[in-house]
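From the shared-data thread, chain only:
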Amino acid sequence: MSITILRTADAWWVRTPDSAAGGAARIDTDATTTGELLAHAEQIEAARGSRPTLDPATLDLVSPVTAPCRVVAQMTNFASHVNDAGLNPDTIPLTFFRKTSGSISGPFDDIVRPTHVRFPDYGACCEMACCAGLPCGWPGGWGVAKGFRPVLRDQPMLLPVDMREWLPEDHLAWFVLETVEVLDTSGLERCRRVGAAGRAGYDPRMLFALLVYAYCLGVRSSRAVERLCTTDVAFRVLCAQDPPDHTTIARFRAEAGPAFAGLFTQVLLVAARAGMARFGTVAIDGTKIAANASIDANRGRDWLAQQVKAMVTEAEQVDADEDAGDAAAVSDRVSGSGGSGRRERIRAAAEQVKQELARREAVGHAAAEGALARRRRSEAGEQVRGRIPTGPHHLAEAQAHLAREIGIHQAKLERYAGLLAVGKKPMGRPPVPIEASSRVLRARRVVEAARAAAAPTSAPKGRAAKLPSVVANTTDVESRIMPTRKGFLQGYNAQLAVTSDHLIAAVAISQSTTDQSSLLPMMHAAELAAATCHATSGDDLAHQIGTVLADAGYASDANLAAAGPERLIALAKRRDQAKVAATEPASGPPPAGCTPRQAMAHRLRTREGAALYKRRGATVEPVIGNVKKILDRFARRGLDAAASELHLAALAHNLKRIHVAAPA
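Structure, as C-alpha cells:
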C-alpha cells in the first residue's frame, strides 16, 4: 500500500483513497521539510480519512522533495535505455547514481542546462509515494544487492587537475611537505651544487621529503622509492610528477647524511611547539640493528696479512712492469685486479685487527703481572680472594691454593689430636679427614680444571676451524658481531632516549656489545635536547628531565654514582626485581651511609620507585619496535653513515607521532 503526498508553497496534501476523482486533503502539520513530514504519520493518516477534498488540478504544486537532500536516481531502469546506449541489457545491471539538491525543481519550473552539461537528462515528479508495509532490506542484516557494479576499466575519465585534490587534507604526505617547508634546509642545499653545465638538478627539499615519507612507510630501497614515484599517488605528489631515479635518491641520502642530525633536532622542536616532547620520564634502551654486511665476511689476522701481502706483491710487480715499459702487462693486470674499494677495506680491517691485538696484548701484559703477584702471595701462604685469573699462572696458583688448604686443615687435625693427648675435651665437632674436607675437595677440583685447560686439545675431524678471537669485517669494517636473543648478527648497537609521550629525544650508534658505556652519553644528549626544547617553548614542566629509566644492562657503580638527573636503573631481571619489591617493600629515603647500589635497590623496593620503573618498558619498547619496522637493517656502511641513517629513521618516527598525536 502506498500513500501519495502533494505539496504546495504553504501546505502538505494527501490523496484520499475513497474518492473516485482522487481528491486531495490538507495535512494538519507544521512540517517544513520532507524529513519532518515523514515523522508525522498520525497526521497523514487522519488527513486521508477527512472531508472535504480538493481537486489536485486546482493546486499550485511544487516539488514534494525539499532541499537540501540526497537524491538517489536510477540510471538504467529500462532495458531500452541500455539498448539506446549500445550495451547489452543482459550484462548491464540496474545502476544508481546520486544527484545534488540543485537538481530539484518544481513541476512547472524552467529546466536550466548547466554550461558544463551537453545533454541534460531530467524527469518530472509532482507527487511522492510513501510505501507502507514493505520490508526494507534483509531481516537481521543489510539489503541484498540486485546485481554487481560494472567494472569499466576502459571508461575514459579525468583526474583532478590540481594535485591538492589527489589526497585528503589530513594525509601524512601533506604533513611531511608542510613540515619540511618550515625547516632550515640550508645543510641539504649545500650538498647539492648548482651552476654547472647540464640540466637542472632535483630540489633537495623535494628529495628530503620523499626520503622521509618513504622511511615513514618503512621503504628504504632507492629502487623501491623510484618505482613508487610512478605507481603511488602520495609519492607522485611528493615528487610533483617528476620522479628521480634510484641513483639520485641513493646519492642524496649519502651526501646529505651529515645534515640529518640537525634536521632531527628541528623536528623535535616542532613537536615541542605543538605541546609534545614531555621529558618528565626519559627511558633509555638499546637495540641491535644489522649492518649492510655479512657475518661470514669476518677475517682474522692471518688471512688479512696474506691479502695485504698479495696486494703489496702485486703493486711491486706493477711497478716493475712499468719500469720495464711493458704497458700491455700493466693494463691486463690492472683491469683484472678487482675493485679498489675492497682493497681499502681489507687494509682498514688489517689495521683494525692489528690495533685490537696490540690493545689486548697491553691489557694481557698488565693482567699477567697481576696474576703473577697473586700467585706469589698464594705460594707465600697468604689468603688471596677472588676467582683465579686464566693464563700461564692459573695452574700454579691453583696448586698453591690447594697446598694452603691442605696445610690449614692439617693444622686443625694436629691441634685436635694435641688436645686429646693432654686429656682435654675439644669443643665442637671433630675435624673430618683431609680427603673429606669440602674446602680441600673444592681446591682439588680447581686444580683439575686448570690442568684440563692447560692440556693441548685438537679439533674434532670434520669440524670447521674455529674463528680467531680478534676479527674484522671486510665488508663493513666498523661493524661488530653483536649478540642477540636469537643468536649473533653483524651490526651496530643503536641507543635511543625516549620521552614519556613516545618521542625520540636522542639517538646514538655504538660498537660496544653492551650498554653500560652508553648511559652517560645518552643522558647528556637527552639533557641537551630538553634544554633546547625549553629554550624554544619555555615550558618548565614538560621540558625539564625528571627521571631517567634504564634496565639492568646499564647497571654499574660508575653509572649509579655519576652526576646528572635523577635515575632509576634496574639491578636484576624484571621478575626478580618485582618479587623483591613485593616481598621486601621499603619506604622513605635510603638509609644514611649506604653505597649507590644499595641506595638504588632501596628506591626500587619503594612503592613509588617500583611504579615509576614500570613505565620504562611501556615507554621505550614500543618505540624500538616502530624504529625496527622503519629500519631493520642499515643501507649504508660505516659508523657515521649508520648514525646518519638512524637519525633519519628517528626523524620519520617523530613526524608520524606528531601527525597522529598533535592537536589540530
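The first helix runs from residue 34 to 38.
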